[in-house]
Amino acid sequence: MVKIAVISDLHLGFSPDFEREKDCYEQAANAFNKALSEDPNLIILIGDIFHKKIPAQETLGNAITFFSEVNKRMGKEVRVLEKEGGKKEVDKIPAIITIYGTHERRNAGKMNPVHILEKAKLLYCLHKESILAQFDGVRIGIHGLSGVHDKFARTELENWRPKPFERAVNLFLIHQTFNDIIPTQDEDLLEFNDLPTGFDLYLLGHIHWNLEDKHPVSKAPILVPGSTIATQLRGIESKKEKGFYLLNIIHGQTKIKFIPIKTRPFIFEKIDVGDKKPSEILTLLSEKISSFLKEDYRKKPIFRFKLEGKLAEGFSPVDLQLKPVIDRYSNKAILKIDKSSLTSSELEKRKSFLQGLIDEKESVNKIGLNILMKSLDFSDPKLEELFDCLSEGDIESAEEVISKLKLE
Ligand SMILES: [Mn+2]
């Protein structure tokens, strides 16, 4: 029997504010501790170990400490029988195998932080590379394409053309956007159909929420563990548990289990504030927050509210001052209140005025001329000439034009 833990998107170094600075390490540790308690033969990571391609020294130092500890606790190595692609001549590698993700990718030939961990022999990184490893007589093929630019993902896949190893369970690792998960009009983005067939399991990084699907042709499982930390605070991330996969491979059959981990509590809610005044919205927000706070959280929770709708007549989003609410609850919750979807008549008027200028292709000169005509309460073709002189700063000619105007 071979046990493999599959963990994704740790985003070490993700630190949106002082309070959440340690979350990425704590939640990564939660995943690895649970994984290690299962005594796996191998841990597979599928990209975005780091949040930034050039992390702070502290992040890199913390990551080295973290992975040294994991390797020590695992106390295992992986014996490589065969390899395809890549340049490394190896027979034994660390029991942590990864690809690098889009957050770590740098231009070709440049070293990224995952390469540094590899140089420290803390993990083994695959890019357009396949290895065949053996665990207690069970052959496992691991094929990895690290993060590439989405525009070239299909070409990179076609150029690489990995082949499954014979008499082995073959795992395919990739870290890209897929149109099947987040539908777009972008034809460059990969689809599940682009994944080469012949592999037993597809492991996808990059997507931050847990989901499962099947290859449209071969029906082999596609597994997305999701990140160990919520970075973008998407609504879907508040609905799904964070965690990792544990694969149990016995006699060529793979049992798949998702294991949830503890994370900072996160609640997301859309609130319709249509026709409400800012003062009413503040009351509504306070009520919501108080009701959510009735629950007992093991750690200060994140509440993200997305305000939607058109404000009451006479108010615009700038009139809604949220700082006092955020400050009032700051010792109980981390509040993220999103006003970007709010509209108002005031805002629409200003927008439509500007849009009108664009639609009518009004030049600044024409607007100026209209203002001049309005101010003088007088219309004469010579006003255009006057305006031109004024706008060019030619006072002498302007005076000449004025003397010719028949002002009463
Ligand atoms: Mn990511």
Helix content: 25-40%
Q: Termini separation (Å)?
A: 103 Å
Give, in order, the helices and strands. Answer: EHEHEEEHEEEHEEEEHEEEHEHEHHHH
- Order of strands, widest sheet: 4-3-7-8-9-10-12-11
CATH class of the largest domain: Alpha Beta
The SS-based structural class is alpha/beta
Radius of gyration over all CA atoms, rounded:
30 Å
Q: Classify the beta-strand content into a percent band.
A: 25-35%
**By CATH's scheme, which homologous superfamily of the largest domain applies?**
Metallo-dependent phosphatases
- Can you summarize the main beta sheet? 8 strands, mixed
Tally of separate helices: 11
Query: What name is given to the CATH topology of the largest domain?
Result: Purple Acid Phosphatase, chain A, domain 2
**What ligands are attached or bound here?**
manganese (II) ion
The tally of domains stands at 3
Architecture of the largest domain in CATH? 4-Layer Sandwich
Instruction: Give the CA-based shape.
Output: elongated
Number of E strands: 17
| Low-confidence segments | none
> Kindly state the mean pLDDT as a whole number?
93
